[in-house]
Specification:
The complex is a heterodimer of chains A (about 230) and B (about 80).
Chain A: E1 3-7, H1 14-25, E2 30-33, E3 45-48, H2 69-78, E4 82-86, H3 88-95, E5 102-104, E6 112-120, E7 136-143, E8 147-149, H4 152-160, E9 164-169, E10 188-192, E11 198-201, H5 219-232
Parallel strand pairs in A: 1-2, 1-3, 3-4, 4-11
Antiparallel strand pairs in A: 5-8, 6-7, 6-9, 9-10, 10-11
Helix pairs in contact in A: 1-5
Chain B: E1 2-9, H1 16-27, E2 40-45, H2 51-66, E3 72-78
Antiparallel strand pairs in B: 1-2, 1-3
The chains are: A alpha/beta (about 230), B alpha+beta (about 80).
Chain lengths: ~230, ~80
Amino acid sequence: MQSAVLVFPGINRERDMARSLKLVSGVEPAMVWHAETELPAGTDLVVVPGGFSYGDYLRCGAIAARAPIMDAVRAFAAKGGLVLGVCNGFQILCEAGLLPGVLMRNTRLKFICHDAFLRVERSDTPFTRGYNAGQVIRVPVAHGEGNYIADHETIARIEGEGRVLFRYCAPDGAVGDSSNINGSINAIAGIVSERGNVAGMMPHPENHVEGIIGSTDGRGLFAGLVAQFDKAA
Amino acid sequence: MKARVTVTLKSGILDPQGKAIEGALKSLGISGIASVRQGKVFDIEIEHGDRAQAEALLKSAAEKLLANTVIENYRIEIT
């Protein structure tokens, strides 16, 4: 699996992401600067990493979403190419119109930086095939604006089409107000596009792929993506 | 030519920052404030003098970047 990791000024999780992609896929990802207008030939997966592109100026992800490389990402996604956005990457994909909704300030206003439990809602997508539906995973979050919102119709459509990939939950998988760490509608932590090829999530699976860290719960996401391309090859 | 674009949250969109400001005003003893919602103001200088052209330009700027129309409204004033 050949992946391309986008790099914007102010992004700071791109090396974590590249390291995890390399560890799990065995292939060094291409690092693609935001001012580029084309993705490297042969790209299977585009990853928009986390961090604070442009210092969250204007709105988080707003400026990066208008970078030259994003037209190439839009064209790639329109052809069915797989795109994953994590944290600021999720915010950027929403601002770019590749995913619906928007990430607002956490309801309790705090920047949250700790492990979170996520319930995997479905296992039949390229992004979640490494997990079982209903499985609970533990991965870190680090964000001040992860409160996912969209209008009623959009939420109804996302839920109706089963496009929620992850929800914040208690360790036993129960979803409720106390485990909804940022106030997202329906405790949504990650979603996928209508066509199923663009995914965004606030938590950081790339930080839980090595045993030495204490959890490898994030590895399934990358292993699933690798399996997707092995199958295709 | 000068212009101002004001971006505000649509009604019904929760504004945690506005709520925090509202709470701080209360703690300062400034009473009588029912609610606060935070927005943004952009003061913009236009290169050319054509008003209709400026309006179109600012509309495009607001729609494409200054506001996220999923959650925000905008208002353009040209002076």
